[in-house]
């Protein structure tokens, strides 16, 4: 199926400024899976000399060395060493993209210190643009963005890639009317991966999907496993919210947890984008009044009122 690339004009323009700037740059783009980070970067890099590497669970140094050698045969003679390879690429390519960067960290936490030393001793004086992409929001925020990270202070650009807006999804469905677009948006939010799969008429497509071995049925487990351990507790909390339990007390009662126990789980779900805080227009931002508000399920995104934030 032809893969559309819709909108993302603002993100592309921001990234192009990073790529066109003088000197070294270290850009971090992160966001939940399916949000379109990789496509955004690769579309922006069209026509530019670059190396792309998708990090895996094991033996990343060996695979990274092979990727460099595939692009530049003389790299075959280099030692399999992060700093050696980064120094080589600094002089041979304009852009280096490492996708699923969190997999490097999962395999070997010392890689952060190695990249720090490479940046401080060699890369910072060159023109290389290093782009790290990450789909594990919890790990990227804790390992790359926190002050305790060895790479803290080396980033020159950070972007959390968000879902597309309602008006932007029209590009995926040029023949759909506003009513059908609203129905599609209510199901898929602005997640490009889901929008690509939908084939109008929406309700007919959805009915067929639910009757088949659809990706929808396993999507929640897939997304949760990417971010958390102890999936059972998170699934129970999401189930509670989906059933209209929008206050902390209601959620804890449904999950049979103490209030102090459920709050950290809610905070992590909010940080990773599985749930969002929404405040009624009639209430001030500082309101503490416990509103139930509206609850909307969007695959693995569930919205709860801002006033119910733990």
Break the fold down into its secondary structure elements and pairings.
Elements (H helix, E strand, L loop, with lengths): L8 H12 L4 E6 L6 H8 L5 E5 L5 H12 L10 H9 L4 E5 L2 H6 L3 H11 L7 E6 L2 H9 L11 E4 L17 H11 L3 H6 L4 H10 L4 H12 L3 H12 L5 H8 L3 H13 L3 E4 L17 E3 L2 E5 L5
Parallel strand pairs: 1-4, 1-5, 2-3, 3-4, 6-8
Antiparallel strand pairs: 7-8
Helix pairs in contact: 1-2, 4-6, 12-13, 13-14
Provide tags for this entry.
310 residues; alpha/beta; Rossmann fold; Arc Repressor Mutant, subunit A; 3 domains; 5-stranded parallel beta sheet; 3-stranded mixed beta sheet; 14 helices; 8 strands; disordered C terminus
Tell me what you see in this structure.
The protein has 310 residues and is an alpha/beta fold. The chain folds into 3 domains: 9-160, Rossmann fold; 166-214, no CATH class; 218-310, Orthogonal Bundle (Arc Repressor Mutant, subunit A). It contains 14 helices and 8 strands. The protein has helices at residues 9-20, 37-44, 60-71, 82-90, 102-107, 111-121, 137-145, 178-188, 192-197, 202-211, 216-227, 231-242, 248-255, 259-271, and strands at residues 25-30, 50-54, 95-99, 129-134, 157-160, 275-278, 296-298, 301-305. Strands 2-3-4-1-5 form a 5-stranded parallel β-sheet. Strands 6-8-7 form a 3-stranded mixed β-sheet. Strand 7 (296-298) and strand 8 form a beta hairpin. Helix 12 crosses helix 13. The longest helix has 13 residues, at 259-271. The two termini are 43 Å apart.
């Amino acid at each position: 199926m032809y893969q559309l690339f819709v909108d993302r004009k603002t993100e592309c323009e921001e990234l192009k400024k990073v790529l066109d700037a003088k000197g070294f740059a270290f850009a971090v783009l992160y966001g939940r899976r399916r949000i379109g980070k990789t496509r955004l970067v690769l579309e922006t890099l069209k026509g530019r000399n670059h190396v792309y590497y998708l990090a895996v669970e094991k033996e990343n140094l060996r695979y990274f060395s092979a990727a460099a050698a595939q692009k530049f045969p003389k790299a075959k003679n280099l030692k399999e060493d992060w700093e050696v390879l980064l120094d080589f690429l600094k002089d041979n390519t304009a852009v280096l993209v490492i996708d699923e960067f969190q997999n490097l960290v999962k395999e070997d936490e010392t890689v952060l210190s190695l990249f720090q030393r490479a940046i401080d001793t060699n890369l910072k004086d060159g023109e290389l643009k290093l782009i790290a992409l990450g789909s594990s929001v919890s790990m990227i925020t804790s390992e790359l963005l926190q002050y305790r990270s060895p790479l803290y202070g080396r980033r020159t650009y950070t972007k959390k890639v968000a879902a597309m807006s309602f008006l932007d999804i029209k590009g995926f469905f040029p023949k759909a009317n506003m009513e059908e677009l609203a129905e599609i948006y209510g199901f898929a939010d602005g997640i490009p991966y889901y929008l690509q799969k939908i084939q109008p008429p929406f309700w007919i497509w959805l009915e067929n999907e639910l009757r088949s071995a659809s990706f929808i049925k396993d999507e929640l487990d897939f997304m949760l496993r990417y971010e958390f351990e102890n999936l059972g507790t998170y699934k129970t909390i999401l189930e509670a919210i989906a059933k209209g339990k929008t206050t902390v007390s209601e959620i804890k009662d449904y999950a049979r947890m103490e209030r102090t126990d459920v709050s950290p789980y809610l905070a992590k779900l909010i940080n990773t984008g599985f749930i969002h805080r929404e405040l009624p227009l009639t209430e001030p931002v500082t309101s503490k009044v416990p509103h139930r508000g509206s609850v909307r399920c969007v695959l693995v995104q569930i919205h709860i009122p801002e006033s119910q934030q733990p």
